[in-house]
Amino acid sequence: MNTEAHALILATTQDFFGKFEQQNAVLLQKMGFCVHYAANMNEPAYLSERGAIEAAGVMVHHIDIARSPFMVQYNQKALRQVLRLIHRYRIRLIHCHTPVGGLCGRLAGAWSTQAPLVIYTAHGFHFYKGAPAVNQLAYYRVEQALARQTDILIVINEEDYRAAKHFRLKKGGQLYKIPGAGLDVSRFSPISEEQKRRNRRRLGIGENAFFLVSAGELNQNKNQQVVLEALLKMRQNGIRLDNIRYGICGDGFFRERLQEQIQKYGLTDVAMLFGYRTDIPQVVGCADAAVFPSRREGLGMAGLEALAMGIPVIAADNRGTREYMEHGRNGYVCRYDDAEGFMKGIQTIMGLDAEKKRRMQAYCRASVRPFAREYSEAAMQRIYYAAKEKLAQKEERSREEHAGQSQYYHGHIQSR
To answer: What DSSP element (H or E) covers 367?
Structure first.
């Protein structure tokens, strides 16, 4: 692969690169690609990562893509912008992510005269088990149709893998399951007792308080409200909350709604909105338990990161957490809408004696080893080399066709 080859990573938001794609960009660069990243660089509004992405040697492009597929005007404009990028830089490989990014990238790949090779990573299909009927009907059919424009399809959980096996990919297409974006076990590892005490003081958490923490965007899917309902139920059942603290890390559209719920439930001395944090390992590492109540997850890095630090997780049962959660061994699992279940989970972790707590912490760390970054990187390296081989074969066919056409026209001219 020569150094003039260009690859485009496509997603909906700028923060997606730092969370999931930085290592992929490095792999592509090592293979000789000039890497581009296209996303809506105005989302999320509270964060700007453009400088960090450019510092990684990646060319950044703003496109007017929206996270909602129903914002048709913006997404049509984004599709045109991607087509122009493909033409301008002669993009040979597109790696697209997120539902709308996958739609835009695969349509652009199919419609472009450059005919780039298209990879799509599904971080969680929207037609998951238990999803609304409209998801099962609409999203399944869209993914089924777009699969025909996909050279390589990547999924990150078993439920999606089983579903994807029924899709018909582009001729010669390949399906892979990988262990997510890769867990950085060097960054997310247990911290010392002294560090825990120091971090708690900085956060205003008492040394002996039972500290719960959630990390994730504040939105309906992340479902932090069910934890507040669980805390309210505990109080209604006569359980004192004086020594319990719940920290919510993240920002998003639901911030005001969560603040109102905290006040309504009388939990202002218990629950705290920490906002967007860049020190998540320090916050999660000093917790007694992490709460991960998402309605849906493709995998759920926040859950994996907490477990890697030896922090038990009280999790909602979904296709993502089923990949690594084991009820009673590395935490507690219940339905996403079961406030009483989360209440019982909190009480269960609080009630562990020292020996049971030690065993659970050890198993938390052991349970996430298969998701370490080294395994994800190895899988992506194999996939990119497969893509490189596909590109080489495509170029060889193109040269043969061109040579055949040249011979035909040369012979035709001579015969005249």
So the answer is: helix 354-367
Q: What is the mean pLDDT of residues 205-228?
A: 97
State the SS3 of 118-160. Answer: EEEEECCCCCCCCCCHHHHHHHHHHHHHHHCCCCEEEECCHHH
Cα separation, 86 vs 57, in Å, equals 19
Q: Which amino acid is at 384?
A: Y
Tell which residue, 125, 136, 132, has the closest CA to residue 158. Answer: 125
Query: What digits encode the pLDDT tens for the residues 77-93?
Result: 999 999 999 999 999 99
Classify residue 3 by its DSSP letter. Answer: T
Task: Give the residue among 346, 319, 337, 299 at the shortest CA–CA distance from 128.
Answer: 319
Residues 250, 279 contacting (CB under 8 angstroms): no
Higher pLDDT, 134 or 223: 223
The answer to whether 180 touches 304, Cβ cutoff 8 Å, is yes
Q: What is the C-alpha separation between 403 and 381, in angstroms, rounded?
A: 33
Which pLDDT belongs to residue 2? 44
* Crossing angle of helices 339-350 and 225-236, rounded to 10°: 70
DSSP label at residue 33? P
H/E run at residue 8: strand 6-13
Strand (E) or helix (H) holding 397: helix 373-415
Contact, 315 vs 337, CB < 8 A?
no
Asked if residue 33 has pLDDT above 80, the reply is yes
- Nearest partner of 301 among 1, 6, 15, judged by Cα: 15
Query: What is the C-alpha to C-alpha distance for residues 156 and 176, in angstroms, rounded to an integer?
Result: 9
What does pTM read for this prediction?
A: 0.92
Domains of the chain in sequence order: 6-182 (3.40.50.2000), 193-367 (3.40.50.2000)
Q: Are strands 152-155 and 244-249 parallel, antiparallel or unpaired?
A: unpaired
Can you spell out the DSSP letters for 319-351?
Answer: TTGGGT--BTTTEEEE-TT-HHHHHHHHHHHHT
Q: 96 φ, ψ to 5°?
A: -110, 155
For the four alpha carbons of 236, 239, 244 and 250, in that order, the dihedral sign comes to negative
Confidence label for 1 from pLDDT (cuts 50, 70 and 90): very low
pLDDT digits (tens, 9 = 90+) for 370-411: 999 999 999 999 999 999 999 999 888 877 666 665 554 555
| Cα–Cα nearest to 190, from 33, 340, 97, 310 | 310
